[in-house]
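To: structure subgroup
Subject: Chain for Friday's discussion

All,

I'm putting the inputs and outputs inline so they're searchable in the archive.
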Amino acid sequence: MRKCPVCGEAMENIDYEGFRVRYCHACGGHLIPAARLKAIQQRDSIPRAKLQEEVRARFTASTTEPVRCPRCRMTMRKQDVRLPVVQVQTDVCAPCGLIWLDAGELALLQLAHEATATFADRRALQQRALELETSPERKAQFLEDLSRLPDTPRTDLEPKYAAGGSILADILVEALCFLLRKR
């Protein structure tokens, strides 16, 4: 079992948003493979209230002292992450592909990602797809509306919209069909 790079206590593997990460119970930090951070941020199975509680209870500030990678023991590089309200400094070991997040920072990064328009749009699209899947009437209405969409761009629109209208419709149809197949 690896030792925490901040307090030296043993870390344990835990499940966080469906991914295995290392967690230090003593100081509350997380050691995460860099490739998993974005995937973790995009999940939303941990309720927002629980993430907020973790930030309030644990987050104080990022560690300013150098932190050594628990795997290779090299000094990790400080990387600034600017959030709307606060700046977080993560510790990155590029050769090992690991990121150290001090107590509360993972929850803070996840809350910041959930506040973005991209996340809200994705969540709304997932909700609409779920509603289509669970309501036969809505799904039938959607398919009927979809069948009435023109196959060619409308020529009665203003020129700046005529060319892109069909492309946007195609993208939306493909996204919804993908989500429906995925379920």
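Points worth raising on Friday:
The first helix runs from residue 34 to 42.
The radius of gyration is 22 Å.

D.
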